[in-house]
Amino acid sequence: MEMTIVTPSIADYIEITDLWEASVRATHTFLTEADIQYYKPLILNEYLKAVSLFCTRDHNEIRGFIGLDDDKIEMLFIRPDYRGKGVGKALLDFAVKKQNARKVDVNEQNVQAVGFYEYLGFKTVKREPLDPNGKPFPILSMELQK
After folding, report:
1. DSSP code per residue over the chain
2. Contact 96, 88 (CB under 8 A)
3. Distance of alpha carbon 60 from its chain centroid, rounded?
């Protein structure tokens, strides 16, 4: 499946944040409702504008997005109904091949994401017991080995 990857506008941030929430609810089962409500305004108001953001669309609906900072993938989220359909791989390939991404931090408890990155050549190089906000969600720092 060929996918066009584009830079979203600020007007897309609400849709992207809604996609983030749907994706997190499908994959981050270790988060509580309070955790999701804590992170949601940070995504919308701080995190999206702090990265180089790219997305892929289908019939004007954003299917997935990736946020990059230099050579690091800061976020990669896929709409739940598009998981397993190549959207994440397309965004990751774009980040690696076109944007020179080589690093990613992943929630250790999100075993599907860890497996996804391992399958595509990333290896864990470091583990932190807390996330950057000091919450007890261990973070794996991974780097591309290819």
Report:
1. ----EEPPPGGGHHHHHHHHHHHHHHH-TTS-HHHHHHHHHHIIIIIGGGSEEEEEEETTEEEEEEEEETTEEEEEEE-GGGTTTTHHHHHHHHHHHHH---EEEEETT-HHHHHHHHHTTEEEEEEESS-TTS-S--EEEEEE--
2. no
3. 20
**What's the half-sphere exposure (Cβ side, CA atoms, 13 Å) at 63?**
21
Residue 83: what residue type? R
What pLDDT, on a 0 to 100 scale, did the predictor assign at position 60?
82
The HSE-up count of residue 125 (CA atoms within 13 Å, CB side) is: 11
Distance CA 85, CA 1 (A): 8
- Stated pTM of the model: 0.93
Strand pairing class (5-6; 52-58):
antiparallel
pLDDT tens column, 3-15: 789 999 999 999 9
